[in-house]
Model the fold of this input.
Amino acid sequence: CDEVALADGGEGTLDVLGGPNRESVVTGPLGKPVKAQWRFQGDTAVIEMARASGLSIVGDAQHNDAVAASTTGTGELIDKALDLGARRIIVCLGGSATTDGGLGAIRAIRSPARLKAVDFLIACDVTTQFVDAAVVFGPQKGATASQVRLLTGRLERLIQMYRENYGVDVSKIEGAGAAGGLAGGLVALGGKLIPGFEMVADEANLHDRVAQADLVITGEGQIDHTSYDGKVVGGVIDTAHHFNKSVAAIVGSIDFELVTDDALIRPNPLLAISDIYGREKAMNEPLWCIEHATLELLRNYVVN
Done:
């Protein structure tokens, strides 16, 4: 059995890529100092923006100030990585409290020109346009309808600012709206957007490991229409199919209203522990349910 830890480039990616080995005090999303863990090894830095500018830091959307929230802390971590001589910087997006278009991060990097000599990678799993960041994600971060309009106006002005200052039109870049537009801001500084799952899969040598497998098992909390939009479960299933491998998925539940037929058919079998053991048991004893569903799956695989 070969276990492979994976992520889609958002929260949890740092742990998959070796885990944090540094901790720095930076400016949190609402201005208070926070201790942010990150990784620096060899000449590579891995920064998970959620650890410096994430919604989890303020608690939840209700306790967030969607208009004031800033990515300053993420920029401070990038600046620290540059000070240490990083030649490769990976910034993992997702879980942000912010919709500042990356302006806070840009202002926190004391000499952005240093990034020109760095392999600067921005890992994300969404395709949202820069100007749509507030409309799509603002409400999740506590923004009211009027605040969404205000934030959208800010993003529109930043498009012009980035075009004038850096010669980059972030309005035309798919995915620039990730993490409240942080993706676009970092691209303006020379960053390269990359699919988060593919980056993690490469680091984990997933293709070679799947090629050697007889059966591939993956899963997620709920399978729905987003499961093949840069998510881990879709990426694993696609990789398994590429190598003509049998692939199964064990999930918490299936949203039949949001799921597509394709998502139901492609993993075979697709097991939902809430259907097998009941929602209450699946919620209270998920590990037990997953273990027993996996054992039953393997028994059937061996028999067949």
About this structure: The chain has a mean pLDDT of 92. The CA atoms of residues 30 and 87 lie 30 Å apart. The chain is about 40% helix and 15% strand. The domain at 13-198 is CATH 3.90.1510.10 (Glycerate kinase, domain 2).
